[in-house]
Amino acid sequence: MCLVNSYLAVAAKWGLLIEIGKYKTGRDPISTERDVYYMSNTLQQQGFSFQLLQNEAATAASIRAALEALKNRCKEGDKVIIHYGGHGTQLRDQPGGDEVDNFDEALVPYDAPLLDASKNTQSTLFIRDDEIGIYLDALRKTVGPTGHVLILIDACYSGTMSRGQARLRTDNTQSVSQNQTTQTDKPKRSEWFEVPTTLQSRGTSSTIVMITGAEANQTLYEVRDSENKSVGPLALYFSQEMSLINEQSTYLSLFKSMVARWGPVMQNPTIEGNQNARLLGGDLVLPAWFTRIKLESQRFLQKKGILSGYTRGSEVAISITPSNSSQAQTVTGRVVEATPFESIIELAAPLATKDSIRLQTTLSRQAFEAASARVTLVNFNQSSQKKEVQSVLQNVPGIQLVSDGADWLIRSTAKSIELCRASDGAILEQFAVDAIADIPNRLTAYTQAKWMQELRMPVSGMQASINLVPVQFAPTKDSVLTWLPAEERGGIPVIRTNQQALLTVTNTGSVPFYFSIIDIQPNAVIDVPIPNNKYSAASLKLLPGQSQLFPLRQIAPPLGLETFKLILTQTPVELSGLVQTRGETVKSTHPLSQLLSAGLRGNDQPSLALDQAGMHNYQFWIDSPQR
Questions:
Q1: How is residue 192 annotated by DSSP?
Q2: For the whole model, what pTM was predicted?
Q3: Fewest beta carbons less than 10 Å away: which of 1, 14, 52, 373?
Q4: What percent of the chain shows pLDDT beyond 90?
């Protein structure tokens, strides 16, 4: 233990951010300036010193020099995080190469030429996976057995034309079918490192983990953050989850939480390397320590924001200690402004003392934005039809028509009107041209399902885990006859419609709780499978360390990404009627029921005390039987 502590005391933290949104040649611009915002703030919170190479500073030569300098700067026990945000590509393997698929994956520096089959595919201005693999092997030896290296690649490696409003981070234009990108039966690696030894743990070698936003044959779409700005998904979701970490966080638990935020998209993020190792070896700055405060009159600015749950309207308990005293006074305040990493808190009453003071904040009641959506109408050649759609959407609560930055697209075609996801253009539903009146209800359903899925409480005393595994039960009783092979796609379990499954809920915290499960299906249907007629709300209590098993004897369509939202409460709560009526029918006075009802109906800033509920998402793919 003393040896580990000595390493932690002297180990340094180094970062390298390579962020290219604008290129020298005619490539599409992307929004990596937002990647810089999230990654730089997160690295600063974790105590990293880092170098930023952005746009014209990120040439092939400067990237190679920065990687070499980083390796030379490191010593044994150091922690390293590298993030690349920019275009990615696939190149034909060089002669004598070792690529299984005959392609090298490559970063696209600022000065890389446009691809030309006749001359540019072998250009040294691309940085291939083989070169990065050699560099990582050298870095592994430098940081030694107690060192940690995390690489995040926010790019894609082959692409298709975007059907939505989101930008693609790809340098290639060959077509990749939806079946190729979403219907893989086996979990795939990123293919960035096809030599098996590169990211494997070898004896006393360091911990190296790579997370990529997509598999080698997939596109990567940018996403929108809480301020409706485009950003790379890894930069956003990594920063969000780093604001929720604890001492037991591993690379795998971090990755799974990131994937749970992704939602249903046409890509499978990947993780490789020593993924079960503790995150940065446990050398973490925990979220409770983020606060740095600047006091001005009755308001103060602190370095905790939306990512830590300090949303506008949230209530805060503030411990105030004069610099010449050990006696703390507790007052209350409210968040009046917030960005992802900062918030302005207004005290409920002016401070009685003008002496130098120390402040420490604790979130006591979190405010949530209600369900809402931005919608763009596209390809409407008939003005009368467009006006009709605008008319039916005009007074729908929470729906805002915008020209850019949409959550959903409503697209006109020759034969129908399509409701699409804006991030990748995926068609969710089609309506006959004479069924325009049906659009508001379905649009609202998808908006409410998305809100329910994204609803989170960053801090809660109640902790739980949920697991779903494929099995075969005995015909007449709920005993397991056969444990079926587990499948994953992009780190998410796959359950097939010809299988059965065993669901396990475990109390992993230190306080008892009652639990419910809200099922959010790919087609925006929301239901409450637990509690039910067999398991009453009052019977679903778990003490610390206890588990409860539930047999799922039928796995039914629709196919796609499904979410079980685990709801934890101090007292039993019945949510079935509320969820089925989308917030219109509320029989319970439970604070959680009031929150869900207000949010689903589009009321502004519903809130909930942090000790009254906990929420955890568990996602899994529903797929058809293997052929």
A1: S
A2: 0.85
A3: 1
A4: 54
